[in-house]
Amino acid sequence: MSRDCQKISIVCPAYQEEEVLPLFHRELVTVLRQVEKDYDTEILYVDDGSHDRTLSVIRELGDRDKRVRFLSFSRNFGHQAALTAGLEHARGDAVIMMDSDLQHPPALIPELLGKWKEGFDVVLTVRQDDPHLGVFKRWSSKWFYRLMGWLSDTEIRMSAADYRLMSRRALDGLLELRETHRFLRGLVSWLGFPTAEIAFQPVSRKGGVSKYTLRRMANFAFDGLMSFSKLPLRLSLLLGLGAVGFSLLFAFFALVRWLFTPGALAFGSTFILISVYLMSGCILCSLGIVGEYVGRIYEQVKGRPHYVVKETSWDERIRFEDRHLQIGQGPHRKDSEHEHFAA
Questions:
Q1: Are residues 200 and 259 in the same domain?
Q2: Do the domain assignments include residue 2?
Q3: Which of 220, 229, 218, 226 is nearest to 151 (CA)?
Q4: Is residue 81's pLDDT more than 80?
């Protein structure tokens, strides 16, 4: 089937980006002019509960550019939730997701589309070494992906960014996955569709500051680890077996010492304390790991939406049975629903 003149959706999360959004949109539009002779395009901004003028800037962009649609959250739900919302509401035959801070260069879009035309359902972008990043960020990122490679059955490409293209069939498969804790890089890899890679050199911000704090990065990494590996549960078993083995060795050592030097076990109280602390630590670690998994099961069972929409740029007079689309619940839209959300 020819892919000429098909629709392309650009999904762009934004949080506190009032300074850089006009610059990003100008550069994005310049690149889209190169492909609009072959593709119909839409730009979908997702305001992740910003407290500055981000939403106002997006409204102004929408007034000037009819390709622009937007969602605005009732509060900050996080980057992965914003991407999920954009993907659920995108109408394109292929969807490109990218950050709106210009660290994901729009100039790569023609190359992404070229790989898609070659038959790849997923086109990843892979960051080259960024000299602007601090030593800690580069070191932690490298070791996170190595740890994921050791612990997970799902291969996640090192240095892969959330800047990627997905075909409609790959996107439909992704939207069937309803995990509460979203780690899209892992979920996309888990799907297993034909994948291509494009390297890019990240650039420094042209406005604003990064919103990815150390705490957000740690939570993101933890979500990825817990979502794609059962090894922590097995680790608790290994800790228990190790503690039992240590206790047996100590008991054997004490018995041998008592046989050869009776009355020489005055030092025993120290070792007893050590073994008690070791056993207690193993038990607490095991309970903590199990508790984390149980907590995630509890959150999944509650079935809360990934996000809540406060405002959209299109007609919100939707049918009651379609209401789940407005709060981040339910499967992807059908063709009739695509038409329903048309501007």
A1: no
A2: no
A3: 229
A4: yes
pLDDT in tens, 96-137: 999 998 889 999 999 999 999 999 999 999 887 665 656 656
The half-sphere exposure of 121 on its side-chain side, counting CA atoms within 13 A, is 13
Judged by average pLDDT, the poorest of 180-184, 204-208, 281-285 is 204-208
Question: What residue numbers bound the domain in which 98 lies?
Answer: 7-211+313-340
Question: What pTM, to 2 d.p., does this model score?
Answer: 0.70
Are residue 40 and residue 136 in the same domain, yes or no? yes
The β-bridge relationship of strands 7-14 and 40-47 is parallel
Pair 130, 243 in one domain = no
Distances in whole angstroms, Cα of residue 266 to Cα of each of 82, 195, 254, 256, 284: 63, 65, 11, 14, 29
Question: Bridge-partner residues for 40, per DSSP?
Answer: 7
| Residue-averaged pLDDT of the chain | 78
Looking at the structure, do residues 295 and 322 belong to the same domain, yes or no?
no
Residues 96 and 192 occupy one common structural domain: yes
Determine, yes or no, domain membership for 13.
Answer: yes
* 206: CB partners within 8 A, 6+ apart: 20, 23, 102
CATH assignment at residue 58: 3.90.550.10
How many other C-beta atoms are found inside a 10 Å radius of the C-beta of residue 262? Answer: 8
pLDDT tens for residues 264-285?
555 566 567 667 777 777 787 7
Q: How far apart are CA 213 and CA 118, in angstroms?
A: 38
* Distant-in-sequence, close-in-space partners of 93: CB < 8 Å, separation ≥ 6: 3, 6, 7, 8, 167, 168
CA dist 268 → 255, 273, 277 (Å): 11, 9, 14
Strands laid side by side in the 195-200 sheet: 195-200, 122-127, 160-167, 94-97, 7-14, 40-47, 68-73, 309-312
Number of compact structural domains in the chain: 2
Q: What confidence tier does 324 reach under pLDDT thresholds 50, 70, 90? A: very low
Are residues 18 and 112 located together in one domain of the fold? yes
Whether residue 161 is contained in a domain is answered as yes
Q: Is residue 225 part of a domain?
A: no
